[in-house]
Amino acid sequence: MAYTRKASASQINMYNACPYKWFLRYKRGVKEPTNLSMTKGSMIHSIIEEFYKLNPKNCGITLRNYKTAFPEYSMDVFDKVLIMPRTYFGKDLPTYDEELKALCKDDFEYVKEIIDVKNMVRNYMQLFLMQFEQYARKSEYFTQTWYTMRLKFSELELNTDNFIGYADAIIEKDGRLIINDWKTSSYYRIGYSEEYELQLKLYAAKYAELHGAIPDFGAITFVRVGMQCLYPINKETVVDEANKIISEFLSKTESDDENDYPRNYQHQFCTCNMSKNKDKDWCFYQNICNEDILNETEE
Question: Which listed site, 98, 132, 186, 202, has its alpha carbon 20 to 30 Å from 115?
Fold first, then answer.
């Protein structure tokens, strides 16, 4: 079957949360503007990706000093990523430093957000050091340990005829293949999540389609607190399950009629006037949704 559109984990999760929200974003083209959370999340991904580009030869890090040297190196990477040039499909973007300053209302907020990103990096380093130590105990040389532990793939594109996604990391550990995604979520989103499980299931299936091996586990690394949650992958069913999910999503989103995309007032993050959280300000689309509801009532 030939596909004219491609699904993604984020699109499917958005549709499952609220079909009308998906309609506003992908049919009307109303895109949520960049905010501080998005920028900090993107910056963390860039920092971790840059961190793993370390050349272990002559870097000054050894099996004797790595517990202090790695955290110092991670702060050097932070400083580098903060001001490095950025592009997106050939278009120049502001540096993270420029973007953060533009989004912050004053210097105090800017400093607060910089500290928040640094704290996330430090927490990630605690998890990294615990994992690195397991390999260091079995090795005599830093270079050997680094190459044994480093990521198999970083920011791996999973692009097939009906799906597009980017796996943050592919890890081989103790003969097991793990597909990993980094999250900068707040505390309330830490732990098991159906959204995370669906994302990892889709990524595992598409990794298998492109690389011929089904990952044993999916993993979510919560950078904010330096914690990791593993999701076992059912190798016998994951490919069929993923393709069914994608096929159903593409079928449900063929229509251009907004009446085919109902609002989900019961979703925990719905904040339009018809929801129980109408006094909150969580959903970017709530004002558009409220206006559309009013227009429907007047008609």
Answer: 132
Alpha helices in 36-180 (DSSP H): 36-51, 66-83, 96-103, 107-136, 142-149
**Cα–Cα dist 66/32, whole Å:** 41
Q: What burial class does residue 283 get, using C-beta atoms within 10 Å of its C-beta: 0-12 exposed, 13-18 middle, 19+ buried?
A: buried
Whether 176 is in a domain gets the answer no
Domain that holds residue 131: 36-148
Q: Give the global pTM.
A: 0.91
Query: Based on the number of CB atoms within 10 Å of its own CB, is 130 exposed (0-12), middle (13-18) or buried (19 or more)?
Result: exposed
Please report the pLDDT score of residue 88 as a whole number. 81
**Tokens matching residue 93:** 């973007």
Domain total for the chain? 2
Asked whether residue 109 is domain-assigned, the answer is: yes
Burial of 180 (0-12, 13-18, 19+ CB in 10 A): buried
**Of 148, 179, 200, which residue sits at a domain end?**
148
> How far is the CA of 277 from the CAs of 95, 217, 265, 281, 296, in angstroms?
36, 36, 9, 8, 21
Determine the distance from the C-alpha atom of residue 105 to the mean position of all C-alpha atoms in its chain, rounded to a whole number: 26
Work out whether strand 86-88 and strand 91-93 pair parallel, antiparallel, or are unpaired: antiparallel
pLDDT < 50 stretches in the chain: none
> Is 193 inside any structural domain?
no
Helices (H), strands (E): how many in the chain? Answer: 10, 7
> pLDDT value at position 144?
93
